[in-house]
Amino acid sequence: MNNNPNFPQPMGPLSVGNVASAALRLYRDRFKPYFGVSFRASLWSIFPFIVLIPLAVIFGLLAGNDQPNVGILLLIIPVWLVFGTYCWSHALKNAALISRLAFKELINQPETVQQARKNISKLWSFFWLQFLVNLIMFVISLLLSMAQGLVIGLPASLIKGGFAAFLILVGYLLYYVAYFWFYARFFISETPFVIEENSTVSQAIGRSWTLTKGFVGRILLIITVAILITIPVYLLALIPIFSLIPILSLIDQNDPTQMMILGGRIVFSILGSFLLFLLLNIAALPFWQIVKGVVYYDLCARKEGLGLDLNDSL
After folding, report:
1. Taking the CA of residue 130 as centre, how many other CA atoms within 13 Å lie in the half-sphere pointing to its CB?
2. Is the dihedral of CA 267, 270, 273, 274 positive or negative?
3. Rounded to an integer, what is the distance from CA 177 to the centroid of its chain?
4. Helix, strand, coil: what percent of the chain each, to 5?
5. Which of 13, 17, 195, 217 is buried most deeply by CB count within 10 Å?
């Protein structure tokens, strides 16, 4: 892989700091191919929304006819959903591809982007994997909220004063601790799916659950470090919105013309922040996917040894 002597070699488990530094160095060394894959992933992810604009116009024109064809109108929605699922599957596949490339670098079996694509025949399954993980987390969140309400919220509602507020605060704290514990268990679900070629969706989710057992605190630390590294990038997306603050004090709220202009600027600022976020996410996405690849490598090294079970599963 890397000829850089400072790059962590595939000798064994990594510390939390080494996971972050390995991800940063790998991102720096392979910036061009990873950025290209991230760019494709981002395009696939927004493509359904771009197509939604002309579809909305067609829908409006058809619905505006004196005798609208209800069948065609109803057909537009499922067609768009199928198209969207296809595009998002490509987006998720490209994002996961970066994790595979990073992992292959770490085990000294590097692949080019083209080779990795040829080795991955799955497509739609990436969407269903992400859908299933999101569904699991939604159900977990729902159950945790219900438990929080019954065990803490209900008693707190019968108590007045500061102790009730303290109980509610503890309830929220316990909710987030439990939620992020489960989040860490499913954090790398798509990584074994894209690396272990015969893995099914359920096996990949189960593999993430198995590998992360006993390492939740460590994974949450890695996620925290990754957030601290990438959050300044995402904060740049707020510049268009923050640029409105000096203008607000100059606006006469009794002047309809100025209020209309302000409304237009707010819309364009929000749109500008959204577009800027998409652009910045293209740069940040590879880092997150590399982190997942490095975490997967690290967990395999700790639990299975990189030269034995892992190679057998590839």
Report:
1. 15
2. negative
3. 20
4. 80, 0, 20
5. 195
pTM: 0.83
Residues 6+ apart with CB under 8 A from 289: 34, 38, 95, 96, 98, 99, 102
**Which tokens hold the place of 303?**
């639990």
Lowest mean pLDDT among 1-15, 31-45, 93-107: 1-15
Least confident range of 7-21, 43-57, 223-237: 7-21
41-57 pLDDT, tens digit per residue, is 999 999 998 988 888 78
Residue among 31, 30, 25, 24 at smallest CA distance from 228: 24
Long-range contacts for 262-265 (Cβ within 8 Å, ≥24 apart)? none
| 225 sits in which H/E element | helix 216-235
C-beta of residue 26 within 8 angstroms of C-beta of residue 294: yes
Tokens of 251: 């606006």
Q: Which two tokens stand for residue 25?
A: 């160095």
- 105 pLDDT more than 70: yes
For 154, residues 6+ apart whose C-beta sits below 8 A from its C-beta are none
